[in-house]
Amino acid sequence: MSSQQSKIALVTGITGQDGSYLAEQLLEKDYRVVGLVRRSSLPTSSRIDHLLGDLELIEGELGDGGSLTRAIRRLQPDELYNLGAQSHVQVSFDTPEYTADVTGVGVLRLLEAVREFSPQTRFYQASSSELYGKVAEVPQSETTVFHPRSPYAVAKAYAYYITRNYREAYGLFACNGILFNHESPRRGEEFVTRKISLAAARIKHGHQQTLRLGNLDASRDWGFAGDYVRGMWMMLQAETPNDFVLATGETHTVREFCEIAFARLGLRLQWQGVGVDERGLGPDGSVLVAVDKQYFRPSEVDLLLGDASFVERSLGWRPEVGFAQLVEKMVDHDLEFTA
Ligand code: NAP
Ligand code: F7E
The pTM is what? Predict the structure, then answer.
């Protein structure tokens, strides 16, 4: 395809985990990829530095409708992937109003600009399994009722419904991808999987001694981000717009994630409270995982397990990377990263 015929994709949140994988995949498909980035005093492009020669970046802020409208009006993108958000659940308890504005109302700002200036644009909204919260059934599918448990999840509920509403009211091609947790070596360091893979690597190198975590019994359906961004693209190629769950269909606890991560590096784990010495180490130098209340949330999501059979039936999507493979991929990366 020549560059004149290339489809244009606008990606918000391009500097984040998913944005970087999606940009790679779109460039491989010969898209013209434009990323919306917010101004910052220091560069935030570490995840996309290897792509900078092939990408276009424009400044924009989900809290500022004018900047979004200008970008959409000028570009007239074929596809718009809204991955930008204040995406951390615990942070949303400390900044609920900001989270509502960026993660919730930001979606309305984008949809209004699309409706007004680029109604042919196909729109992807990054919805989340956090919508299920205190789950009404196991596993969770497109028909499971929502019970959000954090300001983040409530903001995502607004975003989900306004996306559906613009599809029904104005006929926009607008899809919600209800994605269960997905991780990678590019995952933010404040999310539990990356915190564990980094800690395991640093402990192996002798740079860190113990690991402090919150709720070890929380259970998540964890997949690989590269698989999930492939699903985002597939949703926007469908004949008709719809809402789709992406998940692996397996759930594992934070404790299990730790066990596989530390075993990968030949490190033995010692859970808090059993035979710990004055340095915080377990017997024979085994590594201590301590529970720290500061990481507990005011209301927790105990268990998520997704049913992705609808997307498999209708679009043929299924994940390729399994749980143990994901953990090992992250730990292997971080062993080198922290050397
Ligand atoms: P992430 O790594 O935290 O990236 C978030 C992105 O949003 C970053 O590029 C960030 O830019 C940008 N952003 C934050 N505030 C913004 C603002 N006010 N205006 C414009 N951009 C802003 O998130 P992710 O893991 O890639 O997730 C992508 C999307 O999927 C998010 O909407 C998230 O809520 C949702 N989601 C994620 C998961 C998951 O397991 N990863 C599951 C379901 C849904 P900076 O680099 O400048 O901070
Ligand atoms: O927590 C528990 C914590 O912060 C997972 C976001 O991408 O996925 C992500 O949200 C679980 C929770 O992710 C620590 O209490 C224990 O039960 O890695 P997390 P999350 O809250 O599931 C969803 C689908 C999104 O949409 C979000 O954008 O792990 N946990 N100890 C801990 N969590 C953290 N962060 N840190 C700990 O020390």
Answer: 0.97
